[in-house]
Amino acid sequence: MQAMRWMGVIGALALGVAQMAPAAGAETFDRSEGLNLNRFVRQGDVAAHIVLRSGTDPRLIVAFPAGNSGVGLWFDTVSVPATWRFDGPATPLTQADAKGRPLHGVSFTATFHAAALAPKQAVLSSIRVLRDYQGQGTAPKSVLTDAQADGNTLAWSRDRLDGAPGYALSLTAVHGALHDGRFVAGPDGDITLKVVALSGETPLTPVSGHALLNGHAQHDRAAREALAFLSYREKYLAGSWRFDTYFGRDTLMSVRLLMPALQPQAVETGLRSVLERLSPDGQVAHEEDIGEFAILDHQKTDGTLSDAPVYDYKMVDSDYLLAPVTQAWLLDDTRGRARAKAFLAGKLGDAHAGDALMRNLRYIAAHTKAFAANPVAANLVSLKPGVPVGDWRDSNDGLGGGRYAYDVNAILIPAALDGASALNRSGLLAPYASKQDQAMLAGLAHAAAVWREKAPALFTVHVDAATAKQDVAAYAKAMGVPDALALKAIGDRPVQFQALSLDADGQPIRVQNSDGGFALLFGKPSPAQLDAEAELLRRPFPAGLMTPVGMLVTNPAFAPTAEQARFSPGAYHGTVVWSWQQALVAAGLARQLARTDLPAVTRKHLQGAQACLWHAIEATRDMSNSELWSWHYTDGRYQVAAFGASGKDADESNAAQLWSTVYLAIPEPARTAAKCKD
Fold it and tell me: What is the residue range of 318's domain?
């Protein structure tokens, strides 16, 4: 009976809103990326991201920031690659479910050019469930529901597992027809569908315009649109469609890089969202399970239908980002200094923000004291037992099997200890620090110095010139790319770089990487360190990281052949370009060039690296708001390839990614005489 009532509701929607246009004030924009056609819609209680996947494996997903929820429909493979197109605008709407409870979503019309479309599986649940289904092809049976057919309409609907307002999806053939459970084309070979997608999860409170950005923000419409869609009073979303909720690391890095362009309240939204989700012992939450995914978690752990959020604390790097980002706002930014005492005194439940911050500072002090006392590899901060990930390279192969991440140990930990020490000296922590805390905080400056001096050397890799040339030539041949410029860049000089990570025995994973960008942004490297980093950035791949389509985040040319396979152009953290990593380096180079204590030759090297980087950024500006992209080498040149467009790619990128909007706060530098080759 409930299914029939749902059918009546959805059928009326499918047929009744076909001619509606977006109401005044609706924020809507499109993105086309690889095989994905994306449309974003936000107005009032409605925020939705529509994803139409073309090719031979078509699908339709509508993701909702509310509750990190979504509805998706996967179709059977079609014999000939075919494409979707939108027909007219997408319309925000709110509609009562069969029990009179409000559901929020969108209605739109889309056309697929194929003889037939056969629905394979609908999934209506948390985006985490949809994400898992996309990657693994399975979903919990408890969230699956059968289609109901009525004329030319197929509809799926269900309450949430705890009986709360749930989800609805309907497809009505307005050109072509529904026949035996399949949509079949009209005489012109097109199938046109009216789609209605709804979620009953509680809406978030949108933030945009002058409430989000100040007058220093760059006039990049695409980045502004993406950031607005991902920004809410409660939190920032990491990226859409796959990460439509809070991620700790993404929030902290984005707030830090966007800080000059954000309004004060927007900065503090990010910091507060992190502090609210700290563990009792001060760890930063990586991801949150909310809505129906939280219910699924509780069913497994305590047998209840509770939707209380469940937080994931498996990452390591986020714990050491909070202090330096907080320092950047409360101490280094004049706006933040004026608000610092009030911000720390603000209530988070029964405690103050300052109390939560102290929990994190106690945690980082406790977990870094062993190395400060005895700086050997075994005392570095490792990934957590049984967990293969721990920093931003959080795919299983991202660290090449390493257990001690370079960025965490050589850069973020010294920065965190410096930040905690600076906050202590400012007096801001006094109301929240016990006498024992004050003694602990007083010792962090010494600990920071030990980490800063001793940790980087454990990751340093040296390769003599002859061996380096052999490695580069062999790797270039294997990858099908030219090696002449790379070999010329090496010349007769040995190659030096910082290993991506160390294995459990303290041996380096010999992969060049872009993580030196963290040192440029958070640290004060020596001239020698800056010279080495600039050389790595300028050297053409496969001797370094630079390609005409962007700065790669890894280069495994100097690793054993078996290791190189982990870092292919189809690997999520392989020889690919991440937009925010380029932004990190761009912001870091600008920060270092603002120093007045650098030798002229070092400044020239940095300016050359800056010229190389910005040349690549400008060459791929249309990709800058994407999460990442790959490449292929054809017709004698490197060409951009959308990540996820190839069946060999490990996953697909997000069309809107929070930390890919950070160019809003990073202006292109003034032209100088420096050249990329200098």
Answer: 212-454
In whole angstroms, give the CA distance from residue 618 to residue 607: 16
From the CA atom positions of the chain, what is the Rg in Å?
26
Please tell me the pTM assigned to this model. 0.93
Name the band, by pLDDT with cuts 50, 70 and 90, for residue 672.
low
Residue 419 within any structural domain of the chain: yes
- 57 and 136 inside one domain: yes
Please indicate, yes or no, whether residues 185 and 225 belong to a single structural domain of this protein: no
pLDDT (tens digit per residue) in 197-248: 999 999 999 999 999 999 999 999 999 999 999 999 999 999 999 999 999 9
Query: How far does Cα 76 stand from its chain's mean position?
Result: 30
Same domain, yes or no: 90 and 153 = yes
Q: Cα(239)–Cα(245) distance, rounded to whole angstroms?
A: 8
CA distance 191 to 152: 12
Buried b (16+ CB within 10 A) or exposed e, 8-45: ebbbebbbebbeeebeeebbbbebebbbbbbbbbbbeb
**190 and 218 assigned to the same domain:** no
CA 337 – CA 331 distance, rounded (Å): 5
Looking at the 3D structure of the chain, how many domains does it have?
2
d(CA 502, CA 381) in angstroms, rounded, equals: 11
Q: Which two tokens stand for residue 250?
A: 């993404």
Instruction: For 427-486, write each residue's pLDDT tens digit.
Output: 999 999 999 999 999 999 999 999 999 999 999 999 999 999 999 999 999 999 999 999
